[in-house]
Amino acid sequence: MKNLKKILALLLVVAMVAAMFVGCNETTQPSESGKDTTPATQPAKPDDTQKPDDTTPATEPVEPEEYEGFVSELDADGNYVRADDEEIYEMIYGRFAELTAAAREAETNDQRFVLYAQAEAELLDTATMIPNTTQGGAYTISRIAPRTVPYVQWGNDDDRLHSMVISDEFLTPDERNELLDQWAKALGGEGTYDPAAYLTGKGHKLLSDYTTTFSTAPVTLDWLNTSSQSDTEITVNCVEGLVEYDNLSQLQPALAESWEVSEDGLTYTFHLRDGVKWYTAEGTEYAPVTANDFVAGFHHMMDTKAGLEGLVGAGAAEIVGTDAYLYEGGSFDNVGYKALDEHTLQVTLNKPVPFFMTMLTYSIFLPICEPFYLAHGGVYGADEYEAAVSDTDKYTYGSNTDVSSQVYCGPFLLQKLQADSEILCVKNPNYYKADTVTLNSIKWVYDAGENPKATYEDTVKGVYAGVTLGQASGLLDMAKADGNFEKYAYISDTTSTSYFGGLNVNRGTFALESGAATSPKNEQQKADTVTALNNKNFRKAMQHAFDKKTVNATSRGEDLAETNLRNMYTHPEFVKLENDTTDADGHTFPAGTFYGEMVQYYCDQLGCKVICKDGVDGWYNPTAAKEYLEAAKAELGDLVSFPIQIDVVYYSPSDSQTAQANAYKSVIEGTLGTENVVVNLIETTTADDFYACGYRAPNGEAGNFDMFYGSGWGPDYGDPCTYLNTFDHEIDGYMLKVEGLF
Predict the structure, then answer these.
(1) Which listed site, 100, 264, 559, 577, has its alpha carbon 20 to 30 Å from 683?
(2) Residues 6+ apart with CB under 8 A from 379
(3) Three-state SS for 9?
(4) Domain parsing of the chain, residue ranges
(5) What is the fold of 229-389?
(6) CA pair distance 340, 346, nearest whole angstrom
(7) For the chain, how far is it from start to end, CA to CA, in angstroms?
(8) Are residues 610 and 124 in contact, defined by beta-carbon separation less than 8 angstroms?
């Protein structure tokens, strides 16, 4: 299958780059995925008694002439040549791919979870990627009542702000804790959660206009032709899908008023509510919403090949005929996504998918207004679509320069989009349940993070609803000085989004087309770096030398330096076993075992020196790093010349990024020695250049870095494969681009 491109993730990393503005999830940083909230109300606490094992010897070195790893060689003209992606993928990820394939064929959920846990341990053991942080876990002040938007670990729903409750005053920690206690009781079936009544009873006045910030403008208003959260976090407020989670994590009807599932679990029939309309940006009625609009949206999503199409076939949604249509020239007539009549949608699967309903809150299942799409140059068929979009005079659908290039059926209408200034959504007065919408407007103001002190001042004045109090930005000291820290600061929730650093094992770009972000390496140094990064012991040396706590402390301060640290890719408590489950080697995990506990067991079996739980620096192990380095040098022999040059790109106008980049250089060189590794800090002076090097790089070859720690992934649905598929080339493999592949 093709690679899945998905949003994660990314961006300026929330934990790696101080997130400065608080929205519904206490952050405005994009996440290369579709979602970012987790039900934990308290961040994990560091455990200073448990440290990585420094006594186990690293892999035994072999004689250089026995080395069978990949070696990058210069061509006849002395130039570096990029290698074959498939070859490198198989060498590094072969065992991981075998286990994910086995997991997809497992007979039960529990068996699948165990196999995915094995696969994740293998992924961590490759040391091509190192999970480092999650969102949240930072000192914050906010006027937003907690749990007042859809609350779930996956999908796009936590970007839907229609139910947000905002006070005219900052909430105190006591008020916030009382609200969270009420929420927890309501979640357990005891009482109701009514934060508006609570706050007004405490003398607060409620606001109906919400202003936050953005640093990356949407590149399209076509919510089915994007894999970036920076696009969909705006548009999902203007369109509605079949179902939606509420703020108690319960799946509720949206445009689907009801549905049935066949006894064999293969057929889902959705009954759409009558009377829902599409509206122009100005609020003029355009057309009714029909079941065929969902079919049109699904067809269009697959035709755009924006990357999300990998979610609908084998290994994920398993919708009949989708793989044949996408990859084998099959007909859409054979796809199991059909309108039975104007208000009935039927979806047919190849096999039962226990998590299928959890997928429906993700943007790939949103409708489009078919008559509007066709009137603006829209066509069906991948080849036809590719040809149509090249004619910008005729194809005008979803242009990010014209809010009238889209129509909307959700609670808000997009009325302004100025990429370097402001984005504005206003309440749709004709929305079918407009009386439940708490906000009259949502405004995003452009801010690249260059003047955090001004943003703090605006937050105190009431322009913004909240702000994260970072150390490097100076906001923590400002809040302490003016008393706001003592009165209002709390530690924000951590989430299910996982940020990680990726080592580029097949680099193809060493400067942007403009000449910006140019690597200082010569041709031989380029080849030597790729050769070294394809050596597992060298990668492990790099990753175990990464003192995440020290780097994180530059933006968050010492007391919260570990609060948001993450050490595995999937959220450790994302799922758990329902029954006692025995693996192929006879080891039995008891019912209730969390996924992260299983990953830890398999890491230990592999000798992978990682502590998997949140809230500790579970990779940093300088003794092991030095042992792995010596093993790598013995294996590589004269195949490379040390020191190996590692390029790291950073955004210099951001104090946080600059501090973190310098800290990364210091900890890597300090542990491994500059005679062995030199970190080259490559400055970018614009956000566009920074994003182009990593987050916006369209594929692995375009990645302009050796180590990039600005990417992350938020889960799309409620199964571990929503994370692991992003490294599985047979399914979607979107995040492999952060390793320089595909």
Answers:
(1) 559
(2) 385, 387, 388
(3) coil
(4) 84-134+497-739, 229-389
(5) Dipeptide-binding Protein; domain 1 (3.90.76)
(6) 7
(7) 12
(8) yes
DSSP class of residue 95? H
Q: Is 228:234 a contact under the CB 8 Å cutoff?
A: no
Interstrand relation of 129-134 and 498-503 (parallel, antiparallel or unpaired): antiparallel
Between CA 716 and CA 724, with CA 722 as vertex, the angle to 5 degrees is: 150
Q: Are 671 and 629 in contact (CB under 8 A)?
A: no
For tokens 């079936």, what's the residue? Answer: 189
- CA distances for 708 relative to 12, 358, 661, angstroms: 11, 31, 10
CA distance 71 to 49: 41
DSSP class of 289? -
Does the pLDDT at position 463 exceed 90?
A: yes
Residue labelled with tokens 């969102």 = 135
- SS3 category, 466: strand
Alpha carbons 660 and 650: distance in angstroms, whole number: 9
- With a CB cutoff of 8 Å and minimum separation 6, the contacts of 178 are 198
Least Cα distance to 258 among 245, 240, 243 occurs for 243
Q: 530 and 73 in contact (C-beta within 8 Å)?
A: no
Cis before 643 (ω within 30): yes
| Contacting residues for 120 by C-beta, under 8 A, at least 6 apart | 568, 569, 570, 599, 602, 720, 723, 724
- Short-list 366, 312, 319, 318, CA closest to 346: 319
Contact of 33 with 713, CB cutoff 8 Å: yes
The span from the CA of 730 to the CA of 513, in Å, is: 31
- Per residue in 559-618, pLDDT tens? 999 999 999 999 999 999 999 999 999 999 999 999 999 999 999 999 999 999 999 999
- Burial bucket for residue 261 (CB in 10 Å: 0-12, 13-18, 19+): middle
CA–CA dist 433, 481 (Å, integer): 45
Which tokens in the block code for residue 96?
């991981």
What is the average per-residue pLDDT within 490-502?
Answer: 96
* Cα 425 from Cα 200, distance rounded (Å): 26
Residue 202 DSSP symbol: T
| DSSP code per residue over 525-551 | HHHHHHHHHTSHHHHHHHHHT--HHHH
- Residue whose pair of structure tokens reads 């369209």 in the numeric block: 698
- Fold equal for 84-134+497-739 and 229-389: no
Model pLDDT, residue 689: 96
* Residue 5 confidence (pLDDT): 31
For residue 12, the SS3 value is: coil
Encoding tokens for residue 522? 């010569």
Mean residue pLDDT across the chain: 91
Q: How confident is the model at residue 710 (pLDDT cuts 50, 70, 90)?
A: confident
pLDDT of 55 above 60:
no
pLDDT tens, residue by residue, 635-667: 999 999 999 999 999 999 998 899 999 999 999
Q: Looking up tokens 């549905």, which residue turns up?
A: 259
Alpha-helix runs per DSSP H in 341-474: 356-359, 370-375, 382-389, 452-461
Q: 132-154: per-residue pLDDT in tens?
A: 999 999 999 999 999 999 999 99
User: Is-contact 456 445, C-beta < 8 A?
Assistant: no
Give pLDDT, residue 228. Answer: 84
The CATH architecture assigned to 84-134+497-739 reads Roll (3.10)
